[in-house]
Amino acid sequence: VQLQASGGGLVQPGGSLRLSCLASGFTFSDSWMFWFRQAPGKGLERVSRISPGGTLPNVAASWKGRFTVSRDNAKNTLYLQMNNLTSEDTAVYYCAKDGGTYYVDYWGNGTLVTVSS
Fold first, then answer.
1. In what order do the strands lie in the sheet with 67-72?
2. Cβ burial, residue 28 (10 Å; 0-12/13-18/19+)
3. What pLDDT digit, counting tens, does each position of 55-91 carry?
4. What's the number of CA atoms in the CB half-sphere (13 Å) around residue 61?
5. CB atoms < 10 A from the CB of 15, how many?
6. Of the candidates 85, 82, 110, which has an alpha carbon nearest to the alpha carbon of residue 21?
7. Structure confidence by residue, pLDDT tens digits, 9-62
8. Are 26 and 95 in contact (CB under 8 A)?
9. What angle (nearest 5°) sits at the alpha carbon of residue 12, between those of residues 37 and 71?
10. Is 55 exposed, middle or buried (0-12, 13-18, 19+ CB in 10 A)?
11. Cα angle value 30/33/34 (rounded, 5°)
12. CA dist 75 to 12, 43, 70, 103, Å?
């Protein structure tokens, strides 16, 4: 199993980024998927979870309205659209595979998002 996250970088406050996570080695279209993040000096936070077909996207309350999770099963790719970013969104973002009922069985590499002017 491989989960390759990309799309991070430096963005100004108020800006947007779209993260991608390319999955391989398993049946992506059968799997619930997560986005997590870890800000400097802080613990891991679950940002979003999405159902295999993409019909049940869920973003945690802290980011609802600014972040959107989606997926393209034809491309084996998970996305996180992040809008109106603030410095508090600076973090390493990870995609992860749900092994069953919120249990992560595989983690992707992280992609660093830095929000700064």
1. 2-6, 17-24, 77-82, 67-72
2. buried
3. 999 999 999 999 999 999 999 999 999 999 999 999 9
4. 0
5. 15
6. 110
7. 999 999 999 999 999 999 999 999 999 999 999 999 999 999 999 999 999 999
8. no
9. 45
10. exposed
11. 175
12. 29, 31, 12, 24
Residues 49, 98: Cα–Cα separation, whole Å: 9
The two structure tokens encoding residue 90: 């600076």
The whole-angstrom separation of Cα 22 and Cα 18 is: 13
Report which DSSP code applies to 84: S
**Which two three-digit tokens encode residue 24?**
């391989």
Single-letter amino acid code for the residue at 98: D
- Ranges of beta strands (E only) in the chain are 2-6, 9-11, 17-24, 33-38, 44-50, 57-59, 67-72, 77-82, 91-98, 104-115
